[in-house]
């Protein structure tokens, strides 16, 4: 048998039909659904008189639009349109018989946090969701990618997706990370290296010692941002850490099925002599804590650097950089560590897991959020929230003067009232610094959780290593 | 879905690189549960002031581009969020084809599902068409999907690549769910086989 990559293996195990031109029907094992990108798909099904083919493989949870303040516990969503979307999901989930975690269920949370937490996401699976950050699930060695609403409808109706195979890209992070450097810095550094279109047409497999050393949480952070590098999906081969994380979760296999599953999962790695269409290698020791200065995730620099000038770039990027700097209100040559911030957001499917909150608590413990800075901390799920409270992290946050919220996407995309005001500058653990992403004319600097906490304490972008 | 065969239209130049789907349709307009009516909010934050008045500099606000049906755009158009609201808004505005050196993957797929043709061309050819688009309403660009050619206003013509299956669906206005359902037997077979091998799924 010819050597295969991990992607090849998962792909081959899911082709339900292949046409002469290579167009395939890829069978989908898990379909995750949220309230923003699904109403039109369910409406389409109804109009065509179609059913959901595999409701038992379809999981629905509202996350993008839900309020993160306490009044939500009384079932209140102030925003009329947001409420209509959440209600529509409620109705669709019940009518079509999907697995459903309603807004005030303790298991509710950001769809990409709930999937792994509940054991829906397992190695070797195909996972899709009408959301680009579906790549997150790749951390388990699952082929996971975002789809549009028409494709959501297609998967609901047929449990397959029309796909052509992507190319294989290997991203290797060798060696050890230095203290204070995290999964978030890895993933941003990779995008800085490849650019936001560098992964277009590829599925990335992340590997190397620094990746193996990461926890499952960290691996999810890395894969989460594969899409920001343009890739269709990010993958990490499953290993003992993966199996340990999965075992015992509500929807993970049990007993004899666990053994059978494990046997297959252990074959899920790229063969030594597999073919790669592109290889990128970064040295773990050389990665520094990074921040973004512009309005694209590729606008990334070490915290020790200075704001660049448009003339540092080439081609179309010159104008884009000028536009970014204007939008961000930054002067070329300013040290990044001198940029004052107004707000801090910790949360999102990139960094809304327990480990992220522990990192934040380490920095905040015994310190205060700087005067004039507001800090919002939003857990990725109700279970993460409960655990953080149990571990005493929530108390540390509140003592420091941060707001501790209910779970949801929150200020990652600011569809609910959690938004930046005009020109407010935010250190954010989310994944996108696009114009207006966190609020109209809001300014976002992407950072790791530790860096976000450090910024909260000092009131400016700060090298977290100065505070540990 | 409407058929896409030939298009002759005005092209609007948008040379900015990395135009993301948040720019194409900001999240404020994702709260709809419909597909229609998003055209007025296309490029909302680039197109309007906060008070709703138009920004005169924005390309689609200029009289010669109000009827544009083609965009010529910078690299990596449509990156970011998977929101299909982006192609819905473009389509609702009247955009039927987009030309760039590269597109983000999900956006690219979403276009085809909505009768929009995204065309990838090398930089030098995009440059020619960008210049053409800058000429305004007098420059019409012609796109022939059947023959996979695109012709600038001065007659210069380029050929482009398009996936056979996607082309077939566009040319015939086909709903691909219907097409896939014709293959239900293969899906049944796969389900039975993989269900036996991987019962935990
Ligand atoms: S947290 Fe942000 S990136 Fe993740 S699913 Fe929600 S909106 Fe999307």
How is the secondary structure organized here?
The complex is a heterodimer of chains A (468) and B (201).
Chain A: H1 6-12, E1 15-18, E2 24-27, E3 30-33, H2 39-48, E4 58-60, H3 80-96, E5 99-100, H4 111-117, E6 126-129, E7 143-146, H5 149-158, E8 160-163, E9 167-174, H6 183-194, E10 202-207, H7 209-212, H8 216-224, E11 233-235, H9 240-246, H10 255-265, E12 278-283, E13 290-292, E14 300-302, H11 316-328, E15 343-346, H12 354-364, E16 374-377, H13 382-390, H14 393-400, E17 403-404, E18 425-428, E19 443-446, H15 449-458
Parallel strand pairs in A: 3-4, 3-6, 4-5, 6-7, 9-10, 9-12, 10-11, 15-16, 15-18, 16-17, 18-19
Antiparallel strand pairs in A: 1-2, 2-8, 13-14
Chain B: E1 6-14, H1 21-24, H2 44-47, E2 70-73, H3 85-93, E3 97-100, H4 105-113, E4 117-120, H5 123-134, E5 140-144, E6 149-151, E7 157-159, H6 164-172, H7 176-181, H8 184-197
Parallel strand pairs in B: 1-2, 2-3, 3-4
Antiparallel strand pairs in B: 1-5, 5-6, 6-7
Bound molecules: iron/sulfur cluster.
Shape field of chain A: globular
CATH class of chain B: Alpha Beta
User: Whole-Å distance between the termini of chain A?
Assistant: 51 Å
Second rung of CATH, namely the architecture of chain B:
Alpha-Beta Barrel
Class by SSE composition of chain B:
alpha/beta
Query: Helix count of chain A, per DSSP?
Result: 15
**What's the domain count of chain B?**
1
Bound molecules: iron/sulfur cluster
As for the CATH topology of chain B, it is Aconitase, domain 4
Radius of gyration of CA atoms of chain A, rounded to a whole number: 21 Å
Largest pleated sheet of chain B: 7 strands, mixed
Average pLDDT taken over every residue of chain B = 95
Strand content of chain B: 15-25%
Strand order of the largest sheet of chain B: 4-3-2-1-5-6-7
What is the beta-strand fraction of chain A?
Answer: 15-25%
Overall form of chain B? globular
Oligomer: heterodimer
Number of helices of chain B: 8
Biggest protein-protein contact in the assembly: A-B, 81 and 56 residues
As a percent range, the share of helical residues of chain B equals 25-40%
Question: Whole-Å distance between the termini of chain B?
Answer: 34 Å
């Amino acid at each position: 048998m010819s050597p295969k990559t991990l992607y090849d293996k998962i792909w081959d195990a899911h082709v339900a039909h292949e046409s002469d031109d290579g167009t395939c029907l890829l069978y989908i094992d898990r379909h995750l659904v949220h309230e923003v990108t699904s109403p039109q798909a369910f409406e389409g099904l109804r109009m065509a008189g179609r059913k959901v083919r595999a409701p038992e493989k379809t999981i629905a949870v509202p996350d993008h639009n839900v309020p993160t303040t306490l009044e939500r516990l009384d079932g209140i969503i102030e925003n009329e349109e947001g409420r209509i979307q959440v209600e529509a999901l409620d109705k669709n989930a019940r009518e079509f018989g999907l697995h459903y975690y309603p807004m005030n269920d303790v298991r509710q949370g950001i769809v990409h946090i709930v999937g792994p937490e509940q054991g829906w996401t397992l190695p070797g699976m195909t996972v899709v969701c009408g959301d680009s950050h579906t790549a997150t699930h790749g951390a388990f060695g699952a082929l996971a990618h975002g789809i549009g609403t028409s494709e959501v409808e297609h998967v609901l109706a047929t449990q397959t997706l029309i796909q052509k195979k992507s190319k294989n890209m290997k991203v290797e992070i060798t060696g050890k990370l230095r203290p204070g450097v995290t999964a978030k810095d890895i993933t941003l550094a990779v995008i800085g290296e490849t650019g936001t279109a560098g992964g277009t047409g590829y599925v990335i497999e992340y590997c190397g010692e620094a990746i193996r050393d990461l926890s499952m949480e960290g691996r999810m952070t890395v894969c989460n941002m594969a899409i920001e590098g343009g890739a269709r999906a990010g993958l990490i081969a499953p290993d003992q850490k993966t199996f340990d994380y999965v075992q015992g979760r509500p929807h993970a296999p049990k007993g004899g099925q666990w053994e059978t599953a494990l046997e297959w999962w252990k074959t899920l790695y790229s063969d030594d002599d597999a073919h790669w269409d592109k290889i990128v290698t970064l040295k773990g020791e050389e990665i520094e804590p990074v921040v973004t200065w512009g309005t694209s995730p590729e606008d990334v620099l070490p915290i020790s650097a200075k704001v660049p000038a448009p003339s540092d770039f080439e081609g179309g990027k010159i104008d884009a950089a000028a536009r970014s700097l204007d939008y961000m209100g930054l002067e070329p040559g300013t040290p990044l560590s001198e940029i004052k911030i107004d707000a801090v957001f910790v949360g999102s499917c990139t960094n809304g897991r327990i480990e992220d909150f522990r990192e934040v608590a380490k920095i905040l413990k015994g310190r205060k959020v700087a005067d004039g800075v507001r800090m919002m901390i939003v857990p990725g799920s109700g279970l993460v929230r409960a655990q953080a409270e149990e571990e005493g992290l929530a108390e540390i946050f509140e003592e420091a003067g941060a707001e501790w919220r209910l779970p949801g996407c929150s200020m990652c995309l600011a569809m609910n009232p959690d938004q930046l005001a005009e020109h407010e500058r935010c250190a954010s653990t989310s994944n996108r610094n696009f114009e207006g992403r966190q609020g109209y004319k809001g300014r976002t600097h992407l950072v790791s959780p530790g860096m976000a906490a450090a910024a909260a304490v000092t009131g400016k972008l700060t090298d977290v290593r100065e505070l540990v | 879905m409407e058929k896409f065969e030939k298009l002759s239209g005005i092209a609007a130049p948008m040379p900015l690189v990395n135009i993301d789907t948040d720019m194409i349709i900001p999240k404020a307009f994702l709260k709809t549960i419909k597909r229609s009516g998003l055209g007025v909010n296309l490029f909302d934050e680039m197109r309007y002031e906060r008070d709703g008045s138009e920004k005169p500099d924005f390309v689609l606000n200029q009289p010669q581009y109000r009827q544009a049906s083609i965009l010529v755009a910078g690299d990596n158009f449509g990156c970011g969020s998977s929101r299909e609201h982006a192609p819905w808004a473009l389509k609702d505005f009247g955009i039927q084809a987009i030309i760039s050196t590269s597109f983000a993957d999900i956006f690219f797929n979403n276009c085809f599902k909505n009768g929009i043709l995204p065309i990838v061309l090398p930089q030098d050819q995009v440059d020619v068409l960008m210049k053409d688009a800058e000429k305004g309403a007098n420059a019409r660009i012609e796109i022939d999907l059947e023959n996979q050619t695109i012709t600038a206003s001065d007659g210069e013509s380029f050929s482009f690549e398009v996936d056979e299956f996607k082309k077939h669906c566009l040319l015939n206005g086909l709903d691909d769910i219907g097409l896939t359902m014709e293959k239900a037997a293969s899906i049944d077979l796969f389900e039975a086989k993989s269900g036996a091998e991987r019962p935990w799924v």
